[in-house]
Fold this sequence. Notes:
single chain; mainly alpha; 21 helices
Amino acid sequence: MIKLSQELIALLPIFIIGFTILIILLNIIWTKNHTISMYITNIGLNLALYFIKYQNNKIPIYITPLISIDTFSIFYTNLILLGNLINSVLSYTWLKSVPNNQKNEFYLFILIASIGNIILCSAEHCITMFVGIELISLSLFGIIGYNILYNKESLKIIINYIILSMISSSFFLFGIALIYAYIGELSFCKIKELLNNSIVYSNIILIALSMIIAGLGFKLSLVPFHLIIPKLYQTSHPQTIIFLLLNKTTIFLTTLRFLLQTSIAQNKNFCTLLIVLSSISIILGTCMALKQDNIKKLLSYSSISNFGYLTIGLTTIKQNYSLTMEAIGIYLISYLLANIGILNIIDIITHIYSKKKLCTNKIKTNSLSFYKGLFWKHPYISLLLTIFLLSLAGIPMTLGFVGKIYIMTLGIHNKIYWLNIIIIIGNTISIIYYIYIITILFIPNSINNKTKFHLNQYYKNIIILTLFTLCIIILGIYPKPLITILKTIKTIEI
Length: 494
């Protein structure tokens, strides 16, 4: 009876979000009121976050062999749900410009993805991973459909992305099918037991792992599975990119959990493959970003290189568990804060100029030259953007700097010195284009300076972005509270 009550408490956030989805569906049928849907979504996500805290005193909690609750799942579930909550609030102003019969579904997709996020952060079984990834993917297909309203040319890219995403899911499913065919189990702990008894991995297991990496590599936009991502970013609305970013983060976390729980991260050949993928992603991502004039396309290549940095953590998790968890946690949080901030500023500026018809072509608002002299039009929003860019560049006194130092420390501790050289080269190149954007903001532009705009309707966005910058600066100067929290994160097997 006690075990049953613990399991129900652990599943309560999923039940709450599921019930919230039903209310949103009823609202779509009866009123189609966009504001009501936003408040219902926020209440549902806040309740889910509230009840997650009750799991802290009960962990570890095993909910069948499919799901388990530990400090890892609690921390990162809180992080991703908070990200979804912020995304729903920040999207409200933009959704006012969307046709009335298409507004409410945006919140529906966020909630469906939130269930997938919870499942992935707590996954203990390959089938659970697959179900969580597909829930996220289906929601993402719906969200990127909003890009057609924003850019009519995006339809072809959306179709290509959906097809490639389905193919990548097939690769992942085929990989876990091969594991089941060879081992007869799909539970992480069972896979670990059976693989630990094998001195050398069979060819079937190596092929299976390669298929899984191919499937997850596309979801994470690692090279060479990245080709559609720059075009998708270029034609996407900033709020849909944020949604994509949050779900990529969740898939990375479940990949980390999978490699850790199954002990696959101990295999040298597999780690070598991941290091090669991460190195190529860092170099190619930074070099391609260097020559971009479109700010969203630049962020897409930046995303490729940043997930390349994070992939390094997948290869060191077994050798330096505590240090790796700190590095991944700090880097992920700094990356999310900076990117959500930058994308929301792009959204604000694009929306204002499109609404007031101050730009003849929406694509021009994504050009770096369009941001020339932004400081002289609105200094505060330019300062926020500058802080976000400095954090991404890894400049001292920002949280991004702490994250970059931690990633380099992983290479030193594991004596992969050539990898540190790649990290330094990649980061040096990235500093060039981030600083270039910052200099553009402060260059006087006599033509555009005549155009002033007010941010009264975006006060919620500005407040949230201000809090983000404070987090970046305060934790960049004094990261000890965050490090202390990250030190407590453990999965059940650790």
